[in-house]
Amino acid sequence: MKTFWDSNAVLDLLLAGREAQTHEVPADATGLVTQLVAAECVRTAWHDSALTSLRDALPVALATRWVDCTPDWKPWREGLAVLARRFGARLNAGTNDLLHLVAAEQAGCDAFVSLDVNSGLRAMAHALGFRVYPALDSLPVKDSPLLRKLRF
C-alpha cells in the first residue's frame, strides 16, 4: 500500500512516535511525501517552538522514512486546476492541500494520511477514493459536515 502523508501527519509521527494519531497506518505501507510537504515541515519546525527538537533531525527523517514523489510541475499544476474546479466552491481547501491530493493521485497512492480537520482535505481525499488515516470522524473535529458539503 502506498500512503501519501501531509506535513501535519509527518510531524505528528516524528514527535509522538507510537503515540501518534497516525498509528492506524499499516506498518508495511510505503510512505510518500513531496518537496512541498518537506518545506511545510521545515517551516513549521522553525515557526513552532515546541518543534525545536526536530529542526536538525527533520531532513534525515524525511529522507529515510518517506519516499519523495514530487511530480513534474506542469502535470501537477494541471491536476490542481481540475481539483480546484471540482472542490473549490464547496470547501476551504488551499492551494497546497490540492497539490497534495494531485501528487497522491499521480503517485498512485491508495491512502492519504492527514490530521487537517479544517480545510476539508480529508473529506476531499475520501471523495477521490483514498483510504483516509486516521479514520474519518475519529478526530475531535469530525469530517461528516465537510463530507456533506461534497455531496451533490
Number of helices: 7
Q: Strand portion, in percent?
A: 5-15%
Provide the low-confidence segments as ranges: none
Helix/strand structural class: alpha/beta
How far apart the termini lie comes to 30 Å
CATH architecture: 3-Layer(aba) Sandwich
CATH class: Alpha Beta
Which sheet architecture does the biggest sheet show?
Answer: 5 strands, parallel
Instruction: Calculate Rg over CA atoms.
Output: 15 Å
Shape: globular
Q: Widest sheet: strand order?
A: 3-2-1-4-5
Number of domains: 1
Order of helices and strands: EHEHHEHHEHEH
The CATH topology: Rossmann fold
**Number of separate strands:** 5
Nearest-integer average pLDDT: 88
Helix content: 40-55%
- Give the CATH H-level superfamily: 5'-nuclease
Characterization of the model:
- The chain is an alpha/beta fold.
- It has a single domain, classed as Rossmann fold (3-Layer(aba) Sandwich), CATH 3.40.50.1010.
- 47% of the residues lie in helices and 11% in strands.
- It has a five-stranded parallel β-sheet with strand order 3-2-1-4-5, with helices on both faces.
Put the structure in a nutshell.
The chain is of the alpha/beta class and 152 residues long.
